[in-house]
Amino acid sequence: MITAGVDCGAKNVKVVILKDGEIIGKGIKLAGMNTNAAAEEAFQQALAQAGLTRDDVAKVTTTGAGKNEPTFEHEIVTEVGADARGIHALHPEVRTIIDVGAEEGRAIKVNEAGKVVDFAINEKCAAGAGAFTEAMARALEIPLEEFGAVALQSSQSIPMNAQCAVFAESEVISLLHRKTPKTDIARAIHDAISDRITSMVRRVGIEERISLIGGMAKNIGFVASLKNDLKTEVIIPDDYQYVGAIGAAWMAAEE
Amino acid sequence: MQANYGYKDGSGDFFIVIDTERCNGCGDCVEVCPADVLELVEDEFDFEAETPVIAVKAEHAKKIKYSCAPCKPAAGYTTAELPCVKACEPCAIDHSW
Amino acid sequence: MAQDEKGAGYWRWTESRWTSPDLNPKNGEVNSAGVDVGSVSTQAVVMVDGELYCYSNMRTGSDSPRSAENAMNWALEDTGLTLDDIHATVGTGYGRVNVPFATKAITEIACHARGANFMYGPTVRSILDMGGQDCKAIHCDERGKVKAFLMNDKCAAGTGRGMEVFADLLGVHINEVGEMSLQVDEEPPPVSSTCVVFAKSEAAALLREGWPKERVLASYCSAMAHRVVTLLERIGVEEEFAITGGIAKNAGVVKRLAEELNIELAKTDMDTQIAGALGAALFARALYEKKMKSG
User: Fold this and answer.
1) Residues with Cβ < 8 Å from C176, sequence gap 6 or more?
2) To the nearest whole angstrom, how far is the Cα of A95 from the nearest Cα of chain C?
3) C3 lies in a domain?
4) Å from B59 to nearest chain A CA?
């Protein structure tokens, strides 16, 4: 059976096509102003990769902040459920899932059967998710893709008082005025968001193995700060950004 | 005097409420808090006060949701069970979440 | 005075100073001062025997250790007075430790209550202060003593900085934001995000859809007013109710707030931003007189 999972994130729409348990196509597109259009495009990308047409796909399931946006026929599953199912398919040894996206962060505890036992969410506040690092990268005029690497070059840890993206920006400007090296500021920023994410994870309990997924997983500065705060190793699947879509595709197949 | 320490942001209201008239400055709550969130201070609102009162440390007030996270599992808890609330004999401390 | 590093930013509000035309400080017994060093603005107030003599209201800038001094000097400009003529000073606000000439530092919450009691009269019972980077709700008694308070300095929503972000996005001068937001025929729905960062993205999308600036501002001010109401509900609102701080000058938020609470706001002729420094100056006088009495 061929199914598709569409994860309509706040920033990117991710699509995965699954055939008999194998991922045969993937697509990703910036959601921009039109999630529905982005979903269509990402879907086309995935189909092209799989060498299929829309008719070949039996069922489509959506998840993510914009899960209601696509106009094509689809079922809906929660992000928490999709993440759990996706990780279970990729790394069944994982018990704690940390998903940090552009606008939301979540910590999910699963049992050995991959069933969700507990979860905590950081929502509606830019400081709790990727939007924070994005805003800070802009303030420091460092491209987002390089931001993590800059943080790793820091030689000292400095405190960051602001807990809000807007106030943090003012604080960053103050630090720059005082000639604080950008590397140290970058590190403080990554440490700050890691601290918030780790506190959220504590609410479900830090239990190995732990996996980090979502867009923030590609930020090596964040990953370093997180491992430091958790005091454990963290599994980052190769398809870290597609886990929600993978889970949704699995759930479509199992319905 | 009801002192509300904490914040409100998009994700909710997070305040630790101290009744400074009930607080007798015993400091038991400071001892039991695993996150070192509380401190005894001079009563800044009552210049005639004879005993110190509890306050939430400034660096924690801004991230109280995160600081208090260890005592507030996602699986559930009651405010009465929180170490600081349990330790307070005059019931001067409360949590809004 | 304070130099503008960024150039004419839309977010720059007008700095001001004022001297009483009637009082003569040389005739006074106790000249007391209060300096409120906030993260965005600093005010210095000088009182002569408990009467308002002069004040200044300026941007704190990036060098807050000097802001107290700068604000004080500006307040005293052309008055013929110097710091040596001031008998006692109390520092308050976020930067209250940076008022080197102050004899004591007192929390801004206590100072705000005391200042509001002076500005609005002994009937004031609830005060909402929306400053540059924080939001405070205070209950006080007829003497201006604090009975309850709530302070939010974590989140930009409902603060001056949050408003500045929008002024900047829309290219509207911060002084005009409030009035502009009232120039709508019909009240639009409020932006759905409380978070300033997310609200800003929402607003950018609305602008792209063709919404006029006035409508976007109305949507944001509406959301801010509502958010503040829910914050106030934590400790309740009791008449008389007064709004202090910079945002009191934003008619767009103030009017919507009063409407949602269905309450009439207390009025004052004084600059709403000086409440903290004013209270500090009153405390300075009280402390000085107490010291003189005890020899």
Assistant:
1) none
2) 32
3) no
4) 7
